[in-house]
């Protein structure tokens, strides 16, 4: 069977997001993305415009903690922050793929527009969509924060470490 990769070439993909906080839905996409790339750069967006409750440094730390044991088949995971144009960041880290998770039609409409713009800016960088699994389609960081803020149980949506951080941040 021929080698699916040209000799020595590493397929690098970028999985961008605000990750405020990282959820089990995000982790599902990370696991599945590792089947497609050899090196996955999880890019935590500064994105102050979304009004994150955690600093970018805290979000990077949470993501690193949650993904530390996920690398499979020799895949490498890098977690870093970024600001600016995603396609420029992807180019900087040597990525040829941008990986995005889709939950619903509303996600697709926004992502479709982003793909069009990104492909005009950097046509050599492809965007690959991974559909959220049926167990995670409804999870969003926004809803998780709201449930936590109102005293609900978030254990089925985030890891225990993230749940503790959220509870400290929102319930104190």
Brief write-up:
By secondary structure, the protein is α/β, with parallel strands linked by helices. Helices cover 39% and strands 19% of the residues.
Can you walk through the features of this model?
- The protein is an alpha/beta fold and 172 residues long.
- It has one domain (12-134): Rossmann fold.
- The protein has six helices and five strands.
- It has a five-stranded parallel beta sheet with strand order 3-2-1-4-5, with helices on both faces.
- The longest helix is centred in the middle third of the chain and has 17 residues, at 105-121.
Main features:
single chain; 172 residues; alpha/beta; Rossmann fold; five-stranded parallel β-sheet; 6 helices; 5 strands; disordered N terminus
CATH architecture: 3-Layer(aba) Sandwich
How many helix segments? 6
Structural class: alpha/beta
Biggest sheet: strands, sense, closure? 5 strands, parallel
CATH class: Alpha Beta
CATH names the topology as Rossmann fold
Task: Give the count of structural domains.
Answer: 1
Element string (H = helix, E = strand): EHEHEHEHEHH
Distance between the termini: 58 Å
CATH superfamily: HUPs
Strand content: 15-25%
Q: How many β-strands, per DSSP?
A: 5
Query: Unreliable segments (pLDDT under 50, ≥5 consecutive)?
Result: 1-6
What is the radius of gyration? Answer: 16 Å
Lateral arrangement of strands in the main beta sheet: 3-2-1-4-5
């Amino acid at each position: 069977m021929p080698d699916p990769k040209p000799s020595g070439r590493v397929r690098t993909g970028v999985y961008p997001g605000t990750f405020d906080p990282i959820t089990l839905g995000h982790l599902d996409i990370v696991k599945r993305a590792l089947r497609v790339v050899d090196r996955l750069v999880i890019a935590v967006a500064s994105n102050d415009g979304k009004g994150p409750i955690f600093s970018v440094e805290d979000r990077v730390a949470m993501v690193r903690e949650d993904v530390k044991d996920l690398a499979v088949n020799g895949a490498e995971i890098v977690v870093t922050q970024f600001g600016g144009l995603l396609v420029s960041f992807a180019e900087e880290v040597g990525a040829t793929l941008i990986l995005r998770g889709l939950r619903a039609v509303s996600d697709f409409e926004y992502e479709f527009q982003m793909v069009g713009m990104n492909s005009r800016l950097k046509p050599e960088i492809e965007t690959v969509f991974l559909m959220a699994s049926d167990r995670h389609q409804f999870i969003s960081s926004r809803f998780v924060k709201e449930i936590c803020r109102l005293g609900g149980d978030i254990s089925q949506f985030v890891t225990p470490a993230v749940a503790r951080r959220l509870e400290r941040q929102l319930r104190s």
